[in-house]
Amino acid sequence: MKTLRLHKHDNVAVVISDDGDIVRGHKVALEPIAKGMKVIKYGYPIGLAICDIDEGEWVHDHNLKTALSGAREYIYESEAQALDQITDGSSFMGYSRANGDVGIRNELWIIPTVGCVNSLCEQTAAQLRLEGLPENVEEVVVLAHPYGCSQLGDDHEASRKILADLVQHPNAGGVLVVGLGCENNTMSAFKELIGPVDDARVKFLLTQEVEDERTACLEYLRELRDFAVTAQRETVPVSKLRIGLKCGGSDAFSGLTANPLVGAVSDRLIARGGSAVLTEIPEAFGAETILFNRCVTESAFNEAVAVVNDFKNYFLSHGEPVGENPSPGNKDGGITTLEEKSLGCVQKGGRAPLVDVLRYGSRIRMDGLTLLEGPGNDIVAVTALAAAGCHLVLFTTGRGTPLGGAVPVVKIASNRSLAQLKKNWTDFDASALLDGTDMNYLADRFFEQMLEIASGVRTANEKNGYHDFAIWKTGVTL
User: How far is residue 402's CA from residue 249's CA, in Å, rounded to a whole number?
Assistant: First the structure.
């Protein structure tokens, strides 16, 4: 049985072969571990032994439990170290917008202000596709959702912010905002929230005010198509690129291959002046101090602590424990506790200093690495990253998922079995790192592939036509 010890202080190792009694990806004890002692992986505690564990014994949820509880206090102990800047002239082919922003796609987006008009939007989008799209108008995407009405307070405002952010997203060469007319998210107030727009790029329609809403929708969509077709790709410095960082359906190899690879690529982008955004706050529980200690200012540290503790209190206010996270799929793949999952998860943030912290529904304000408030739910998190202004999302997975988003979602497989079985879901295979492939070599390859995707090469989810969208619901429904 071949194993891999990740850190010199670890008292467990990961099984990386199939020739023993312990399933590949699961943990084996490297020494006796007494009941109540910390189990160490990645050099950090991943929980407590709930019974005596012998050397060579399988370590999983039958003998290991989380040590996480509620909110806690933290001390600012900055270890932030700036990355060495890279000035190699890297670029991609993007679309320059009138407001100075840059997109990596030139799509038409239909954004309902309220869920009542979803079917109308879907039907008119289908009709426009049947009429045919010019080559450089790449897709018609409907961002359907059930909200915009029957919500109150912060919950309602969060929905409006997400939708308003997406109206301004540069991946859309044209946007049609479709309302009903009697919803809480009134068109007039929504326009104020959106702010100034290019009237040729963004159109607004209230369906209760027209006789034939389908005809009106199609007329607007044709106008937007004819406007969007005039955009052409041009060379753009890579510093303009903004990426989201996400994992889902993780296994034990996610923290060994795909997540560290994405961290290395994120660092390469940030070193060239670009931006990366890390979210899914509950999947930092148990590893949050790694991020806290990389905050460049005490203000950023305080904001990061507040976001993490607020999320813990959110769980507790609903009577849920903060450590009840690893899914059945995570556990089948060898992940036992949330601490273990988090220690693998935060590696997507690489080594870059943490420059900013955003609340849900906010947009990127600074170049570098940003932490964004949001849950671990895949569709909600990908949507939040898109709304924050990310051009694409690097999505690592050990179990596989066909998930798409409002922006391209690049799937990175953590293990070879997944990459070979689900070729139609997978964009990059990170498993070569287990075979001794050099990280720098593989990260350079993936960085170049990411720039090709930014320049128009379609991801697997785009080829499949998968565009998922969901808003985080936290309040009551009237």
Answer: 11
> 53 has which bridge partners?
33
Judge residue 463's burial from the number of C-beta atoms within 10 Å of its C-beta, 0-12 exposed, 13-18 middle, 19 or more buried. exposed
State the 10-residue block means of pLDDT for the chain, 478 residues long: 93 91 94 96 94 96 89 87 95 96 98 97 98 95 96 95 98 98 95 96 98 98 98 98 96 94 98 97 91 95 95 88 78 90 94 97 97 96 98 97 98 97 98 95 98 98 97 91
C-alpha 81/C-alpha 84 separation (Å) is 9
Among the listed residues 47, 49, 11, the one whose alpha carbon sits nearest the alpha carbon of residue 29: 11
| pLDDT (tens digit per residue) in 286-340 | 899 999 999 999 999 999 999 999 998 998 888 888 776 678 888 888 999 989 9
Nearest to 391 by CA among 199, 254, 239: 239
Across the beta sheet with 202-206, what order do the strands follow? 140-142, 107-112, 172-179, 202-206
Q: What is the pTM of this model?
A: 0.95
Which residue matches tokens 């813990």?
312
CA–CA dist 153, 42 (Å, integer): 42
Give me the half-sphere count of Cα atoms (radius 13 Å) on the Cβ side of residue 204.
Answer: 17
Instruction: Identify the bridge partners of residue 394 per DSSP, sorted by sequence position.
Output: 245, 410
Q: How far is CA 107 from CA 231, 284, 420, 462, in A?
A: 11, 34, 31, 12
Compute CA 145 distance to the chain's CA centroid, rounded to the nearest angstrom.
19
* Residue 55 burial (C-beta neighbours within 10 Å; 0-12, 13-18, 19+): exposed
CA dist 129 and 148 (Å) reads 26
DSSP labels, 206-232: EGGGSS-HHHHHHHHHHHHHHHHTT--
